[in-house]
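debug: dumping io for the single-chain case to check the tokenizer round-trip. Nothing else runs in this session.
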Amino acid sequence: MASLQKAANDSASKATSSASADQPEETPSSEEIQKESTTAAQKALDLEKQAKDLTNAAAAAADPDERQKLLNQALAKTIEAQSHGKVAKYLSSGAFQGFLAGGGVGTGVGAGLGALTGTLVGGVSSLALGGVLGGIGSAVGALHGPWFKPEEIIGKGVNALSGMLPGWKASDGQKKQLEKMIGQVNEQKAPSMEELQVMATESSEKKV
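debug: decoded output
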């Protein structure tokens, strides 16, 4: 199951590259949100394809150990794909719009949209992984809980939000906002392939 753990951490680690200590705390525009949603939806489609390819390879594998390895990798890709899909859907939801109206990404969580997206993906992947490995209670209960360990689960994404960037510190209120958002994303039903395809093409269609 190491590949599943790695998938959750890898998803979250991408958040750090998008965050910076001096990032402006401005509410993202509708165009920026749409672009981020489109990117997440396309990533979900790509990961779903990878999961399908790995599953097919596992079915053709003669060696049992190799077959199990490929199936584990396929499951990891599926979890990551569903997490990206849920985040893409959430970015266009009324819940996220309400969050922005209440203060925006900058003042509400203290991170840029790209960093926030990466952290949400990592958090939701971790919750899904927790269910696969036995469902260790409710991970959304606290960021410092027995399963929801930032350094192991959400990785660099939450570390950025927890003050690992030089000269920057996330407040308890901001951490609670993040925790609430992860819960909202996780409670959604994962979008279908058809819904993902629509979300992945929305930005390009608007430019025509």
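debug: round-trip ok. Residues 30-60 form the longest helix (31 residues).
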